[in-house]
Input
Amino acid sequence: MSRAELAYALVQSLAFQEVAEGFQGTTVFTTHGTDRIALVDSGAILADLRGHVQLALDLGLMSVQFGVEQGPLDLEPTCSAAAWPRSPTGNVKPGPTPPRSTRAVSLPAPTSTCWRPRRDRRRVG
Output
């Protein structure tokens, strides 16, 4: 399962199909603070799934990999974002399907409001 298919499944499970199908853009964006950053690999996302990926990012169901670049003469660094995992050299890792560990990392970490382990388990003997 690719990350785009994972986004599709997450959006479908929340019954947001119509919202995702209403996506009109060719570029997918993410939010970093108050800035809206275009994904550098938006073209790698199938056109039919871009709305699902955009909605999954907007709802916080998926995360992206951020990078900071600064040229030798630039006064300020530039922030970039990628939906697909990258190698240390900055290239997209090969292979159509990321491993299970990469897919698990793409999901946001559970927060205390949505996931809390039960500590009141008692053994009945």
Strands lie at 29-32, 35-38, 65-69, 78-82. The chain has four helices and four strands. The two ends are 43 Å apart (CA to CA). Residues 13 and 39 are 24 Å apart (CA to CA).
